[in-house]
Design goal:
elongated; alpha/beta; about 1450 residues
């Protein structure tokens, strides 16, 4: 990576970000900062001119009472004589209503609120929400709209809506925006939020933002305070609110929009629209996802809701309509599946009457026409309309409907082709909805390249979406390709979430950067304080241990690519120094390992589990993860995080156990190879070493691991030999040349022969010959020679151990003889032999200290040596012997030296207990003794408190001022201690007092001092007190504390007894390894071996002899085969684990619960559906009865009139002529469709609104008496029809029909306005396989267009192309216009069309030869202007407008190309 690429994070920021989790700011400071920011940026509006409303007393035109105005506002000097105007007489002031709001009630809920001006900039509001109120930016914006008044929602639909809305908000991290009041659809949203919070108190809160009008809020006075309310106590009073509305107590945030008026609804609509539009323009987390999507969810609603839906869809906002919620939502749902030609005003009028009831009577004829036009336009934008029908979707998923609506909308418009699915996939990842991606994006028809999904994989990993990671891996992402570049993995580490590893990494980066800055200054190179793979490697090695090699190479190292590999980094030492690397070190890359390590260090179980399944060396990976996690837990300070790390470490230890068990059950020999195989991917260490360093006792205790250790323990001798045979052969070694002792090589040969015999028998049965050769390959099994057998016997760790035991017993015997019968002033021969023996023991301890086959380093090795109890006893015994020997050789300290040596003999005898550690029976008991000794130490501290307390008090009462220290200690400590063991004191009462047994003045050193005597020469101390003290002391010391000690011992025994076997098996390794590396000769003869080792290593400098029993480097082919077999065993283990989990009791209970819930919901749904069907039948019956009554009434009227034709007097719809429907049907069949863009309600780039023209009234032949379109003509251009009078417009009639507006509009002339679209084509190559066309790139950088523009005549190119093509090329193409082929011409549906002016387009195809000069010039132009001109393949996937795509299809047919 270059220095420019390392732009991400400052190291100081990384360190602070982790540390800041533990810091908090006081609420007072937070409130103060919030108040300052709001006062500076947020304003309110208030009336500054009181003018009485004529219709109301003491009420201003603004709606506020006179008492709510200041004195200056009531009689202002500046506005005298003026009429109240909202824009002039309302001024801004810093807001005085903000802070926290607390709602009264059984379930108290707190929220945040602010009173804002109606013209507040949306960016300021967004900063308030995110920066000040600490809301995370949304991944989705859900705008819920509909009925503002309370309406009935069926219980099943309500349940579906609540569940779906909350699910989509929770899974996607969405913001829900509503009107915020305690009525209508806002109340339903609030209940959904409340139900979620009550049922899931541990999950995150749903963000529900209410945007309401300040002037209609009931009880708003409690929200006002100049410094903010923290909190404001708000009470909901729906009964006394009148025309006002209460805030909903289940919303989390409120923006109260103020325009200075009171009691006027709808003030917030414009600000809400601006805020939603601003948020929708913000980018999502990854660039592929585009901007934040917005969806509108509609329940119920009236005409205002219809306008909201229409405006939202014109802004490309998808809408989800809930059928069954009532009124306008049901009207749209009823006609959504019908052709436009069938959606007539008659039908809409019937539906309005059906769903609105009496409210429909308030709608005028013009209102119905306008509603029909808007509903037709809404249905026409089918890609933005989704109708959720609960009866068809079973128990329904509103969340799926919402997300599918967004994905459906993203497939159309300007984002097509690859850009479309990228946005869809980006949205699905941002929402963390893998179910949507599976059903909508990763379909069977889709074909994906790994490189196309790399950005998605990065987003899923960084966003912690493990299900998406699995889905991407299943659909073509190759980890090797994804992590092929080091930059990708480096970027993943830079984007780690706040965690302990990131904090440690930041410290290391800072330390390394600081130490290397001086060198970089010399080189003139700037050091970037950013995370690199070097730092990651160093920190990982610190966690794994210095016995490992760097798992990632430095710049001087080379990669060795393995079969399934991908990315790496490099490694350093434990300290934060810039490491010095070895040149020529080879490191392997494995993508699974890299991803697994990245997930483990952040303690992410789900991602780590997915990556572990991709690991090449899975068992080493699991054990390495256990070591890393335990090390981080040891160094971490967060208790919860530490516990999670330990649980994850245990989880991967179980994974390692599971895989190894499968391996061991399948092939013991291969399984043992896996244990000692050197893993290049994990620091060139072994599974066994990792398990030991991670303290994974359960893994080491596995029978397969113990079998390997037993095999190493026996060496070349077979494990089947009993101990007595080995002991006999140690004395009578010629027996090894007989069959008395079995060697391992012989056993292996016998096993191979037996296997061959079995395969031969199988061959006879099956008739196959390949099985024997494949399953039993030839192996070099050589029979040991005479010398090899002798060497194999005495070099066996088992034999070495027995020899050392005998030697140690002999040493103790010699030591005892010297101390008891041969301790002369001058050392005797036996004593001198003892000295030599001790020197050999000292040499062996030194060898053990410096023997480091694992490469721990001297410091780590010394720590490990000291932490072993037996080594401490060795050091103590040797030191005591040296001190005793020094004293013994001097005359003055001769006897003291003997005493020290006698004590040393005790230590040597205690060291003898180490021989029991190899015993399966006694070994665990030694562990229990160690633990009990620790318990005893803490118990003695507790006991000493009682002993000293009683002893000092007793001694002070009995004896007065005894200055002899020995007798003080005897009376205060020694005697109370003996009392515990039953030595009853005789000096606490007068019964056994004898003045002769004590010294009056304490002068006799052999007698204790007498107690204070009275005149009778008897002790004067209170006898009753000393007896009571003794009783209390015995009660606590003998009964309480001793029984406590027994209970502690019992608890320790019970606790350790269950684990002693595992602990013993774990500690057995060190003993076996010690005797494996120990010289064969026992002390004192071992000194000869030490001398040989010294000469070999120090003098001759010979290389160290390596053994492969504990670490074996395999050949590359053998290693690959072994890992492939391990991967197969891992798959079997994962399969069995999943099967076991699916059959567990917890899983069965969960499945049963889900089935019961599903059945219950289905039953409720069917019950409600049945009742709904009955109601619909009754409604249809009622409608038929009404029609029959009308028909009968018509018959009666006809008979009464006598002579009036029935068909003329039959009642007709007042809004629809008879001929309209028939003509509409015929015209639709003839022309295919009517113009659509020409009837858009809002004329482009103006505020003029067209007269609504429904589909049935488009044609001029259908009479439309209510048709009164507005007149509009832009400023004259080019002098055409300047100043045309309206009466002249009748000479020009749009051939496409009515448009809803008269005049010239934005076009240059009345009547037809000619437009030329130029399709310049070429063949991509000489084989004419691909047809390409010339396209213009629009300003948005996404959409394309054909070159073209307005013309006076189609014989010339549009003048606007001269600027793009430049003069020379423009003139050359202009000449070829006459040679071009006319593809199509005629009326064009254009948004600028009016009733009197329209666009007619001619599509001209100019095909250029590849060798022509025009083509050469054009290609040069495309190369020099790639941002404006492009060659595109003629295809249906092109990003042209629909009209131009049709033209391009005609061009493809012209050249006989498939479109």
């Amino acid at each position: 990576m270059t220095e420019a690429d390392n732009q991400s994070w400052s190291v100081n920021t990384l360190a602070i970000s982790e540390a800041s989790k533990h810091l908090s700011v006081s609420p007072f400071v937070q409130h103060h900062d919030l108040a300052l920011w709001i006062k500076r940026n947020i304003l309110k509006k208030e009336c500054c001119f009181f003018q009485r409303d004529p219709s109301k007393d003491e009420i201003c035109c603004c709606g506020y009472a006179k008492t709510e105005h200041t004195g200056e506002d009531i009689k202002p000097k500046d506005f005298t004589g003026e009429t109240w105007d909202k824009h002039r007489h309302v001024h801004k002031a810093p807001t005085d209503a903000f802070g926290k709001i607390s709602f009264d009630g059984l379930w108290q809920r707190n929220g945040k609120y602010a009173r804002v001006s109606e013209d507040t900039r949306p960016d300021v509001l967004y900063k308030l929400l995110t920066n000040q109120w600490k809301l995370s930016p949304p991944n989705l914006l859900i705008s819920v709209t509909g009925g503002a008044k309370n309406f009935y929602l069926k219980s099943q639909l309500k349940k579906i809506f609540h569940r779906g809305l909350i699910k989509v908000a929770q899974t996607t991290g969405a913001w829900i925006i509503t009107g915020g009041t305690h009525t209508g659809v806002m109340r339903h949203v609030g209940k959904a939020v409340r139900d979620h919070a009550l049922s899931n108190p541990m999950q995150g809160n749903i963000v529900a933002i209410g945007i309401a009008t300040w002037g209609v809020i009931h009880n708003r006075d409690v929200l006002v305070h100049k410094d903010g309310c923290f909190p404001a106590k708000y009470k909901i009073e729906t009964q006394n609110q009148g025309r006002m509305s209460c805030l909903d107590n289940n919303h989390t945030h409120f923006l109260l929009v103020d325009d200075g008026t009171n009691g006027r609804y709808g003030v917030e609509i414009e600000l809400r629209a601006r805020l939603e539009k601003y948020i929708s323009a913000k980018n999502l987390g990854n660039k592929e996802s585009g901007t934040i999507p917005v969806v509108c969810v509609v329940l119920d609603g009236g005409p205002g809701t219809l306008n909201t839906i229409y405006s939202a869809m014109l802004n490309d906002t998808p809408c989800v309509i809930l059928e069954g919620s009532g009124r306008i939502a049901d009207v749209i749902a009823q006609v959504s599946g019908l052709p436009i030609s069938q959606v007539t005003t008659t039908l809409i009028q019937q539906l309005l009457k059906r769903f609105f009831g009496q409210e429909c009577e308030q709608f005028s004829e013009l209102n119905i026409i306008e509603s029909t036009k808007k509903i037709q336009d809404i249905i026409r934008m089918s890609h933005l309309l989704t109708v959720f029908r609960a009866r068809e979707d079973g128990h329904g998923d509103v969340d799926v409907a919402i997300l599918q609506a967004l994905l459906k909308a993203s497939r159309t418009g300007e984002s097509q082709g690859s850009e479309s699915w990228k946005r869809q996939l980006g949205l699905a990842i941002a929402w963390n909805r893998v179910d949507i991606a599976e059903t909508e994006i990763f379909t069977e028809e889709s074909q994906w390249k790994s490189s196309d999904l790399h950005w998605a994989m990065t987003s899923a990993l960084v966003g912690n979406n493990p299900q998406f990671v699995s889905l991407l891996l299943e659909n073509g992402v190759c980890l090797r390709d994804f992590l092929q570049d080091d930059d990708t993995l480096c970027e993943l580490y830079r984007q780690l979430p706040n965690c302990f590893f990131l904090y440690k990494l930041a410290q290391r980066v800072k330390r390394v950067s600081g130490s290397s800055r001086s060198r970089s200054k010399v080189l003139g190179r700037k050091v970037g304080e950013t995370i690199s793979l070097t730092h990651v490697s160093d920190e990982v090695r610190h966690l794994l241990g210095n016995f490992t090699k760097p798992i990632y190479p430095s710049s001087t190292m080379t990669y060795h690519l393995s079969m399934d590999t991908s990315v790496s980094v490099f490694k350093d030492q434990t300290t934060f120094q810039d490491p010095l690397r070895e040149d020529g070190v080879e490191a392997q890359k494995d993508a699974g390992r890299d991803l697994f390590l990245w997930a483990v260090v952040q303690n992410n179980k789900e991602l780590a589990e997915i990556a572990w399944e991709q690991c090449k060396d899975c068992m080493s990976a699991a054990l390495a993860a256990s070591k890393i996690l335990k090390k981080m837990a040891e160094e971490g300070s967060d208790a919860d995080e530490t516990q999670d790390m330990l649980e994850l470490a245990s989880h991967y230890e179980n994974h390692a156990i599971g895989v190894y068990s499968k391996c061991h059950n399948s092939d013991e020999e291969r399984a043992q190879k896996l244990l000692v195989r050197m893993s290049p991917l994990w620091g060139k260490t072994t599974c066994l070493r990792l398990a030991l360093e991670a303290d994974d006792k359960n893994f080491v205790a596995q029978s397969g691991v113990q079998a390997l250790l037993t095999q190493i323990w026996c060496g070349e001798i077979s494990v089947v030999n009993p101990v007595w045979k080995v002991l006999v052969c140690m004395v009578f070694f010629p027996l090894i040349y007989t069959n008395f002792l079995v060697f391992r090589s012989v056993e292996l040969i016998q096993r191979d022969n037996e296997r061959k015999e079995e395969l031969k028998n199988l061959e006879k049965v099956t008739g196959s010959t390949w099985r024997t050769d494949e399953c039993c390959p030839e192996q070099n099994r050589n029979i040991l020679g005479c010398w090899s057998k002798l060497e194999g016997l005495y070099c066996s760790p088992q034999v070495k151990f027995y020899g050392n035991i005998v030697s140690y017993f002999a040493f103790l015997l010699l030591f005892a003889v010297v101390l008891l019968i041969d301790f002369q002033s001058t050392p005797s021969t036996r004593e001198q032999l003892l000295y030599i023996w001790l020197i050999s023991l000292v040499c062996e301890e030194i060898r053990q200290l410096f023997h480091d086959p694992d490469g721990f380093g001297f410091c780590k090795k010394a720590k490990m040596y000291i932490h072993e109890l037996w080594n401490l006893l060795d050091i103590l015994s040797i030191l005591l012997f040296c001190v005793g020997l020094g004293f013994r050789l001097t005359t003055e300290l001769f006897y003291a030296g003997k005493i020290i040596l006698c004590i040393d003999f005790v230590v040597f005898c205690l060291r003898l207990m180490a021989i029991f550690t190899i015993s399966r029976t006694l070994g665990p008991k030694i562990i229990i003794v160690k633990k009990m000794m620790m318990d005893m130490f803490f118990f003695m501290f507790l006991l000493s408190i009682w002993v000293v307390a009683y002893g000092v008090a007793k001694q002070g009462i009995l004896i007065h001022n005894d200055s002899r220290l020995d007798w003080i200690i005897r009376g205060a400590v020694y005697e109370p201690y003996l009392i515990i063991f039953g030595s009853f004191p005789e000096n606490i009462d007068n019964a056994h007092f004898n003045i002769e047994s004590c010294s009056m003045n304490g002068t006799d050193p052999l007698k204790p001092k007498c107690p204070v005597l009275n005149e009778n020469q008897m002790p004067a101390f209170p006898e009753w007190l000393t007896i009571i003290m003794l009783c209390v002391y015995l009660l606590f010391a003998n009964i309480l504390l001793l029984n406590l000690l027994i209970a502690i011992f019992n608890f320790t025994f019970q606790e350790i007894q269950d684990n002693t076997d595992k602990i013993w098996k774990f500690q057995r390794y060190e003993l076996i390894k010690e005797y494996h590396s120990r010289p064969a000769a026992p002390p004192p003869f071992i000194i000869l071996s030490h001398l040989c080792l010294f000469i070999r290593n120090m003098v001759q400098c010979c290389p160290r002899i390596s053994h492969n029993e504990f670490k074996n480097k395999l050949e590359l082919i053998e290693d690959e085969e072994l890992l492939s077999w391990e991967a197969l065993m891992k798959d079997k283990y994962m399969l069995s684990a999943r099967l076991e989990q699916s059959q567990s009791m917890e899983r069965r209970i969960l499945d049963t619960s889900q089935k019961v819930t599903t059945l219950t919901e289905k039953w409720e749904s069917e019950e409600e559906t049945t009742s709904t069907a009955v109601m619909r039948r009754l409604e249809k019956l009622e409608e038929q009865v009404t029609q029959s009554a009308k028909a009968l009434q018509w018959i009666v009227d006809s008979l009464i009139s006598q002579g009036v034709p029935a068909k003329e007097t039959q009642p007709q719809s007042p809004t629809v002529p008879d001929e309209s429907s028939n003509y509409l049907r015929n015209a639709a069949e003839k022309e295919g469709r009517f113009h659509v863009k020409s009837r858009e309600l809002y004329y482009p780039k103006t505020k003029i609104e067209r007269f609504p023209v429904p589909e049935e009234y488009v044609t001029w032949q259908v009479s439309f008496s209510l048709y009164m379109p507005p007149y509009y003509s832009a400023q004259d251009g080019d002098g055409h029809v300047a100043g045309s009078e309206p009466e002249d417009l009748d000479n020009y009639r749009n051939p496409g029909g009515r448009t809803g507006i008269r005049g010239r509009g934005a076009l240059s002339r009345l009547g037809p306005n000619l437009n030329l679209d130029l399709v310049v084509t070429r063949w991509r190559d000489n084989e004419m396989s691909v047809l390409e066309y010339l396209a213009l790139l629009k300003e948005n950088g996404i959409s394309l267009a054909l070159p073209g523009g307005a013309v006076d005549s189609v014989d010339h190119l549009p003048g606007n192309l001269k600027k793009i093509l430049r003069n020379t090329l423009f003139e050359a193409l202009n000449v070829k216009v006459s040679e071009g082929t006319k593809v199509s011409e005629g009326y064009t549906d254009d948004c600028r069309n009016t009733d009197n002016a329209w666009v007619e387009t001619t599509v001209l195809n100019i095909h250029l030869d590849r060798t022509s000069q025009v083509m050469v010039d054009l290609n040069n132009m495309v190369v020099s202007s790639p941002d404006s001109l492009q060659w595109q393949e003629v295809s249906s996937k092109t990003r042209l407008s629909p009209n131009q795509i049709v033209s391009l299809q005609q061009v493809a047919a012209l050249h006989s190309r498939k479109f």
